[in-house]
Amino acid sequence: MSTLRLLALSFVTLVLVGCAHPIVITPELQSIDRSSVKPIDATVAYYITASDREKEVITPGGGGDKVKYYPYKELEPALQKVLNNLFRSVKRLDNPNDAGFLQSNDISYVFQPEIITNSNSDSAFTWPPTEFTVDLNCIAIDRSGKTVWQKRIAAKGEASFSEFKSDFSLSAKRATEIAFKQLQTELNAAPEFRR
Amino acid sequence: MKGFSRLMGVVMLTATLSACSMVAPKYNTNFDNVDKLRSAKLEPVTVGAFATGEKGDDVNRLTIRGSSYKSPNGSYTAYLQEAVRQELDDARLLDPKSQVELSGVLVRNELDGSGISTGFAEIEARFVVKRDGKIRFDKVKTARHEWDSAFLGSIAIPRAQQNYPIVVQKLLASLYVDLEFLQALKK
Q: Which of A126, A134, B32, B143 has the lowest CB atom count within 10 Å?
């Protein structure tokens, strides 16, 4: 590498040292397949508040740096995938008080996730996290407004330098994939939706 | 010493980012697209071949600030084909035995992450629907997606990497709202 290029890169990294690096934590949705799912003939909705959808979270990376991402916005596709695998139709609910929407779409259940994430790294040299955790708490509310199902899922993903050098978000994607696969398993096994 | 070690580590990582080829994220279904397909009550479809057009293999070569940006499917024609396949599958419309076939040609595929304020991607593809071998739909669709870019490559490059798939989502969205396309997939 030429000296000029190395100097240019060094300048870049000096600027970045101590900054929060953006990552994307959406898992590969195709890995959440529906081959083991027994479909449920119902239309459901999910609700994420506007503020949650825009919430940016900053958690530790390596070398004293941090990573930043949007948990709800980036995991919304994973929630859609799980619900789409299980139920006949899935709608996004923007207003939980919109009785007309719930009725006209014949919504049987509304799902609402709560997502807490964290990360860390055992590396002093590189910023991508080697470990990422997801705490996913999901509830389902029926037409009467009653909570009929609730599950908390904790998942952890890990990635070493040799693995994440081609995908800096790898530990996060592994954690979120585990979390949403588990959510699908729990929903598939829940008798509450098969009455 | 710790600060110097960290700096060299970050230099290594940034060098890796800048100097090597990158791979696009695998396509993730856009569920707004799936909702459009499911709401239209269409017949099952099989996905046919996706080929390159007059620009040949140029459409399969993308770069971001001088670094190669490769498709995880081997080519961007295959990437587009896989995107279509995934969304049809998630809409429960995919059936390899169907007499209705959707195929395509990737006409143009551009990615520009060089801008210091705005990056963009543009894609153009011809979609053909055949029923029992007869053409029922044949149209070219185009999509463009823009995002905030940056002077620093270490910010601009990942943003371009992550935003490219969205232009494919937008392309397919434009197809699924075409009434002639929807009509071609109905009995």
A: B32
Is pTM beyond 0.80? Reply is: yes
Angle at A160 between CA A157 and CA A163, to 5 degrees: 95
Residue A151 structure tokens = 């599950």
The secondary structure of chain B in percent helix, strand, coil, rounded to multiples of 5, reads 40, 30, 25
Q: Does A81 sit within 8 Å of B90, measured CB to CB?
A: yes
Name the residue facing A125 among B6, B31, B34 (closest C-beta).
B6
Does A20 map to a domain? Answer: no
Binding-site residues on chain A for chain B (CB distance < 8 A): 1, 6, 9-10, 12-17, 22, 24, 26, 28-30, 62-65, 77, 80-81, 84, 89-91, 123-128, 165-166, 168
**Domain housing A42:** 31-193
Residue whose token pair is 């390596």: A62
How far apart CA B30 and CA B174 sit, in angstroms, is 12
Q: Domain for residue A183, yes or no?
A: yes
Confidence check: pLDDT of B69 > 70 = yes
Which residue, chain included where needed, has tokens 């490769």?
Answer: B70
pLDDT average, residue stretch A121-139: 95
B116 in contact with A, Cβ within 8 Å: no
Structure tokens at B104: 């395509």
Q: Does domain B21-184 have CATH number 3.30.70?
A: no
Any A CB within 8 A of B23 CB: yes
CA distance A133 to B111: 33
- Residue A13 is assigned to a structural domain of this protein: no
Is the ipTM here above 0.90?
Answer: no
